[in-house]
Each structure stands twice: as C-alpha cells, then as structure tokens.
Amino acid sequence: MIGIDLIKTKRMEHMMERFGENALKKFLSEDEIALVKNYKTAAGFWAAKEACSKALGTGIGAECSFFDITISKTVKGAPLITLSEKVQKNFNIKDTSLSITHDGDYAIAVVAIENF
Fold first, then answer.
1. Nearest-angstrom CA–CA distance, 64 and 56
2. I need a labelling partner for 67 at 20 to 30 A (CA). Which of 28, 42, 83, 106 fits?
3. What's the rounded Cα separation, in Å, for the pair 56 and 18?
4. Residue 8 CB partners (closer than 8 Å, separation 6+)
C-alpha cells in the first residue's frame, strides 16, 4: 500500500507562529518535536503521518491517530516511520518505508506499507 501527501510549508509556519510548540504537540510526540529544526521539517513530518494514514486507507482518526505513527531518523539522518503495536496488528503490517522531500514552498512525503 502506498500513500502520499503534500503540504504548503507556509501553512505549518503560520500554525507554529500562532500556537508555538502547542501546534506541534497536536501531532508530534516529545521525541519527534526534538527532531524538528524549523517549520519546513514540521511540515514534512505532518505530510509523512498523513501519507501513512492514506496508505492504511483510513486517514487520521479512530483506527490510526497521529500518535500511532512515529517519525524518527537513522544515524545518517534518513527518516524512519514506525507504527504502534495496535496498528501493526490491526493492519498486519510487515514493513514500512518513508521518504520526505522539500522543494520551495512544499513538503511531500511518500509512505509504502507491506502487509503479511
């Protein structure tokens, strides 16, 4: 299953200007917030979580919340995506892949999910 999402980074910039770190707490854990360098990084993380929920075919909601999806980084800085045990079991997840890119005013993320 594949999901993709696109976000205009200015949308995240405005959200962060208006609500500060509380904006990030609506969709990121403390560990994820520690990885955010600026509004463009935050926009990429938003797109990654939305893309993941689309790959699952649910969108963000009861079956998969923002906090069922965790973004981290490898030692080389590549993004990783991990799903909660609940989501892994409910959707029979075998493996996940994530790519995030930024270009100009946009952040794009693609998530691929492999089932058993």
1. 9
2. 106
3. 31
4. 43, 105, 106
Active-site residue among 54, 73, 76, 86?
A: 54
Q: How many CA atoms lie within 13 A of 63 on its CB side?
A: 12
14 counts as catalytic: no
- Catalytic residue, chosen from 25, 37, 76, 102, is 102
- Whose CA is closest to 108, among 14, 2, 5? 5
Instruction: Please say if 54 is a catalytic residue.
Output: yes
Tokens linked to 64? 């998969």
- pLDDT tens for the chain, 116 residues long, are 999 999 999 999 999 999 999 999 999 999 999 999 999 999 999 999 999 999 999 999 999 999 999 999 999 999 999 999 999 999 999 999 999 999 999 999 999 999 98
Report all structural domains of the chain as residue ranges with CATH numbers, in order of start.
2-115 (3.90.470.20)
- Find where tokens 């600026």 sit: 38
Q: At what angle do helices 9-19 and 39-56 cross, to 10 degrees?
A: 110
